[in-house]
Design goal:
The complex is a heterodimer of chains A (332) and B (455). Chain A has one domain (2-142, 151-327): ABC transporter involved in vitamin B12 uptake, BtuC (Orthogonal Bundle). In chain A, 71% of the residues lie in helices and 4% in strands. Chain A contains 14 helices and four strands. A two-stranded antiparallel sheet of chain A has the order 1-4. In chain A, strands 2-3 form a two-stranded antiparallel sheet. In chain A, a hairpin with a 2-residue loop joins strand 2 (144-147) and strand 3. In chain A, helix 4 runs antiparallel to helix 11 (203-229) and helix 9 (181-191) packs across helix 11 (203-229). Chain B has two domains: 7-56 and 162-453, ABC transporter involved in vitamin B12 uptake, BtuC (Orthogonal Bundle), CATH 1.10.3470; 75-147, Immunoglobulins (Immunoglobulin-like, Sandwich), CATH 2.60.40.10. Chain B contains 14 helices and eleven strands. In chain B, strand 4 and strand 5 (92-97) form a beta hairpin. In chain B, helix 4 crosses helix 12, helix 4 packs antiparallel against helix 13 and helix 12 (382-397) packs across helix 13 (402-418). The longest helix of chain B is centred in the middle third of the chain and has 33 residues, at 163-195. Chain B is elongated and about 80 Å long. Classes of the chains: A mainly alpha (332), B alpha+beta (455). Chains A and B meet through helix 4, helix 5, helix 12 and helix 14 of A and helix 1, helix 6, helix 7, helix 12 and helix 14 of B.
């Protein structure tokens, strides 16, 4: 029983902590891309990587204040979005998908290569850059706080506060944008690109703006994750994270403001709950270790996410909050 | 954009099940939904049985060990080199000599920190120790066989060969790699051509082929050739099952192409990590082929396995081309890829052709995986690491065309290998991926593609 409670509190902590904020911000960005504009960005992890390394490299290697690092990360994300959008936004949706996934992989490979070690730390990554950020907390960063059975350090709590504020601000921005004329055009592009074009809208420019906006929000997610972990490593920003964010978005409901927030929280809760629960079951001998070892549990979460993503798209593409007519996904 | 709605309409069967569902009333929709998980479960169960049958052979060594292989591409395995292991307090924990295949291992009294020393005097004259010197510090965890690598060099790497010779060597390596990518991506391209699906799970077909062959080869003790042939058939079956269990029902349902694409990503993710759970995270070689000496052919040198890989790929690809060109089913495949409705109205059974394409794609991908496992060694994510290069090849050649995939993959393979002249080899895949992006800017329809496809 106590293990069951542990699994629940562990899940809660994950569902509200910086990991969840990371995925929620990635998913808010993807919501702009995929939910509202219909762009298939499968390289969101690449944007997050830029946001994370923007802070880390600026502070560790260039001795800049961390907020300058955040700005550098955001600027890099804008640049990446422009680079990706220029060749592909005129083409069919799956081309953007392939190119973005390739770009995220390129970034990861380059950042972890031996040649880049002097800047990015290579496969070891960088650490020790979040002290200034933690020092900004209005309470003691080192103290432990107990909230509803979950245990947070002051630094984590501060990060969660800042992170969720960021989520709220970006969601508010997306909400107001989608109510504006700009949002109506973007949604029209999703529904019928040719119709939008025949009404004299510059579809290419709108798509580009949406790509930049979503990418920037995704890179903020990477920044939060890096500050929460206190270290960065290129391999943390694998493409599997993009798919996890997609699962979160579709679970919550694409093209809904609350979709990514709800989906990210629930998904992270479920993943962590299953993780802790399975490990407890294994250590108690209920699941024999020959069948599933504790190290396999970490892989099993991706199996579950993969199967969940498939099942969601086949049986309930609108997720929890969405409208089925709005997410009749199709190539455009 | 012109092509997308067109594509959906080409799923000619789409409206029908909907109507029947409505006519049958409420009862049939749950029935439709109920059956699919069953088929899926069966697929997973079938896969699991394949592995379960092969699995009992897995015997983990008890106790701690350090082990390794001394070998370079020019000298082959090095025999008779003494390796000494000392524990942290300076006592000698064990000693070993490499055997005829260059392998050595030392059993340890327990976990902990050890120093492994190689006797450099035993090495042949042309082989030198790498920059790491003659000792290695290793930390051996409980129950673990810790591999130790001494990084020997024999002058073949590091620019010893000189300009033209090196370029030709890289061209030949690139040819081998490109043929390998081509084998994997012909199926990918045909599947796209016939169904419109961008199949991200194709990489797992590659891995499954290699992994099945590994189990048959290493655990069941079959010679690699027969293991490979059997794995080829299993690859074809897995490919066909893919279509039967997932994609055909989804086509019937009228699932959009983007939704199908995301489903394939989910499938890829799930299968990849299932393979990791079963196969483990380590990379493991096939038995009997890893210690081959490179044979000098004048301008370039090749191991026999690389030569065999090139010959096998060329033969298989020529056979596939002949099949596409001459046989009835091959012509039907090209017809369906070209225009699905026209093919259907001229009496071609489109579903059967698509099933055949999946089986062919699965078999070719499996063969590609086996050859990749032969040159690199088998790993749980080997297919996934190749996937983007496969996409690069397919896009370069023109999405949906079989010959385009072939040419495109060859170009990508050669480009990736030759690019190591300029860029460090640990980011050589970046070159291939950048090529993909550049192609999309200049000629999005690819070398052999037609403009309409892109829209």
């Amino acid at each position: 029983m106590s293990e069951f409670l542990d699994a629940i509190t562990g899940g809660l902590q994950a569902g509200l902590g910086y990991q969840a904020i990371f995925f929620v911000l990635l998913a808010v960005g993807l919501n702009v891309h995929f939910g509202y504009t219909g762009l298939l960005n499968f390289g969101q992890a690449g944007f997050a990587l830029l946001g994370a390394f923007g802070v880390a490299v600026s502070v560790v290697r260039w001795d800049l204040p961390f907020w300058v690092g955040i700005v550098i990360g955001l600027a890099a994300a804008v640049l990446l979005a422009l680079l990706l959008g220029l060749p592909t936004l005129r083409l069919r949706a799956d081309y953007l998908a392939i190119v973005t996934i390739a770009a995220a992989e390129i970034l990861r490979l380059v950042f972890r290569s031996v040649g880049a070690t002097a800047v990015t730390g290579g496969t070891r990554g960088l650490s020790g850059f979040n002290a200034d950020f933690v020092a900004l907390a209005p309470w003691a960063g080192g103290r432990q706080y107990d909230i509803l059975g979950t245990r947070w350090s002051g630094a984590q709590l501060w990060l969660a506060l800042v992170g969720w504020t960021l989520v709220a601000l970006t969601s508010l921005l997306v909400w107001s944008l989608m109510r504006s004329p700009w949002g109506r055009v973007v949604k029209a592009i999703r529904e019928d690109e040719d119709a939008a074009r025949s009404l004299g809208k510059n579809v290419y420019a709108y798509k580009m703006q949406a790509l930049v906006l979503g990418g920037v929000i995704g890179s903020l997610g990477g920044t939060v994750y890096a500050l929460g972990l206190g270290s960065v490593n290129p391999d943390q920003y694998q493409n599997a994270n993009t798919f996890l964010a997609y699962t979160a978005l579709i679970l919550g409901g694409a093209a809904r403001i609350w979709g990514p927030i709800l989906g990210g929280t629930i998904l992270l809760f479920l993943v962590q709950f299953a993780d802790t629960g399975l490990k407890a079951l294994i250590s108690n001998g209920i699941i024999p270790e020959s069948l599933l070892s504790p190290t396999d549990v970490a892989s099993l979460r991706f199996v579950l996410i993969g199967v969940g993503l498939m099942a969601l798209l086949v049986f309930r593409p609108q997720g929890i909050l969405g409208d089925r007519r709005e997410v009749m996904l199709d190539a455009r | 954009m012109t092509h997308a709605p067109d594509r959906v309409r080409r799923h000619g069967l789409r409206p029908r099940p909907r109507i029947t569902r409505r006519q049958n009333g409420t009862g049939s929709t749950p029935g439709f939904r109920g059956r699919r998980p069953l088929v899926l479960t069966l697929l997973v169960a079938a896969l699991a049985t394949v592995f379960a049958v092969l699995l009992p052979g897995v015997a983990q060594a008890e106790g701690e060990q350090v082990l390794g292989t001394l070998s370079t591409s020019r000298s082959g395995p090095i025999e008779g080199v003494t390796i000494t292991v000392t524990s942290a307090d300076g006592k000698e924990a064990g000693k070993a000599q490499t055997d005829a295949s260059g392998q050595w291992s030392v059993d340890l009294p327990g976990p902990g920190q050890y120093t492994v020393t190689i006797n450099a005097g035993d090495l042949p004259d042309n082989v030198k120790l790498g920059t790491g010197g003659d000792t290695r510090e290793v930390n051996v965890a409980s129950g673990r066989a810790q591999p130790v690598n001494f990084g020997l060099s024999d002058g073949t790497t590091g620019g010893g060969g000189g300009g033209a010779g090196k370029v030709i060597q890289l061209l030949v390596d690139g040819l081998r790699f490109g043929l390998l990518i081509a084998m994997c991506s012909v199926g990918l391209s045909l599947i796209f051509g016939t169904t419109g699906l961008t199949n991200f799970a194709h990489s797992e077909l590659v891995t499954i082929g290699a992994v099945v062959a590994w189990y048959l080869n290493v655990q069941a003790g079959m010679p690699l050739i027969w293991a490979g042939v059997l794995a080829l058939f299993i690859g074809a079956i897995v490919g066909a099952l893919n279509d039967l269990a997932i994609w055909r029902p989804l086509r019937r349902r009228g699932t959009g192409l983007v939704a199908a694409l995301v489903v394939s990503i989910g499938l890829s993710l799930a299968l990849r990590y299932v393979i990791q759970i079963i196969f483990g995270g380590r990379s493991r070689p096939y038995v009997g082929y890893q210690n081959q000496r490179a044979i000098d052919y004048g301008l370039f040198s090749l191991t026999n396995r690389a030569l065999a890989s090139i010959i096998i790929s060329v033969i298989v690809l020529v056979l596939v081309a002949l099949m596409l060109q001459r046989t009835k089913i091959g012509k039907a495949m090209r017809a369906v890829a070209d225009n699905r409705d026209l093919a259907a109205s001229s009496g071609i059974n489109v579903d059967r052709v698509i099933l055949f394409v999946w089986a062919l794609g699965g078999a070719l991908a499996a063969l590609g995986g086996i050859l990749l496992g032969l040159s690199d060694s088998v790993q749980w994510d080997m297919g996934y690491r190749l996937l983007l290069l496969m996409f690069a090849g397919v896009t370069l050649g023109g999405l949906g065309t079989a010959y385009g995939a072939l040419i495109g993959s060859l170009v990508v393979g050669i480009f990736v290998q030759v690019s190591t002249l300029v860029i460090p080899s640990d980011i050589k895949y970046v070159g291939g991926l950048l090529l993909l992006i550049v192609i999309l800017v200049i000629r999005p329809q690819g070398i052999l593609g037609s403009r309409v496809r892109v829209g």
